[in-house]
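User:
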Amino acid sequence: MFILQRQLLKWVTLALFQALFLLTLPTAQAAPPPIKLAMIESLSGPFGNTGEAVFRNLIWAVERVNARGGVAMPGGNRLMTLERYDSKGQNEEALSALRSAIDNGAQYILQGNSSATAAALIDAVNKHNERESTQRVLFLNYSAVDPILTNEKCSFWHFRFDAHADMRMSALMSVLKDDKALKSVYILGQDYSFGQAVAREAKRQLAQWRPDVQVVGDELHAMGRIKDFLPYAAKIKASGAQAVITGNFGNDLTLLVKAAKEVGFEGKFYTFYGNALGAPAAIGDSGIGKVVAVADWLPNVATASSEAFYQSFRQRFPKPTDDYVHMRMQLMVEALVQSLEKAGSSEPLAVAGQLEKARVTVAGQSGAMRAADHQFQQTLVVGLMDKVGTAGVKFDVEGSGYGFRVIKTLTAAQAELPSSCKMQR
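Assistant: Predicted structure:
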């Protein structure tokens, strides 16, 4: 009995010693909480593939930040987490997702694949931040390109990292205006704020740069609802148009170019997003030398650092259908990390003050935020579709056998446009 009591006393003493030791450990050993990012995007329905493409880009960016130790902050490095919310292509669902993300502790909201949704989120974020000064959030936009979002509707809490529609149109027009054989175009787009902006700017810039080119068609269609574009393609062919100008993306673009091929349309496509998500494979050989796309970066940008960047993404996502990498999303996450570290805090107001003056470089591609309207300024490139293996086309798109050769590069200064933003700070 005496031996048993002595043994029990030893166990109790050891347990107390261990407890006291743990209590005296420095608090710095406790991992600081992660910095939460929330992506609100259409992950189901007709544009689900575009949302998944965004998620791959964003999660890759977050993974690379965490692999190097996370965000350097006072009190210890903090990792980043990315949570995904399905807007189902509906503004109300996106607003509900925003509320859930904020309730779950997200301080940074990421969205882009609809300008209408972005406008609704900007308004909701503005109102939330005014009401809840201790729970503010920032909205980082990587693809919603309606120009109004950094002009009349600019917001201190909103930062856009994609070139807006007028900037993209100017890049396309820098190529189109030199096509002296072109005499007629058909303008076709999605019937919402972005598609309307594209059509409006296409007509304005055509009148400025190529008044000799006739607009033989100007049409908007329901977004994400058209299953058969053959009637549209037939009208395009019957109009005698030599080219189509479109801001369509996702299935609305893929189905359009498939239909154009079926009716035998032989004209050019001047596109915002014709370089991925099934479009090159859908149009095939008939697109060689005829499909033009504008982007912030293309895989065939001919530098060693650009090539290494692209191959690194393909190693992470080797499936051909996953082959859609956005440089601007990597720059966006790096700009956020830089701003967090300079602010020394994850508090959105402090971070916004640093994000306004962010300058970042990834794989030789650089960009800077313009404080006046929170419009990111960066290089734009225009590519022309051709067969992989031809000069300037080392990489194809989604295993299709077709890629885009860079035919025009605009510096950030050349791509920059003025803004009418009157920022309320």
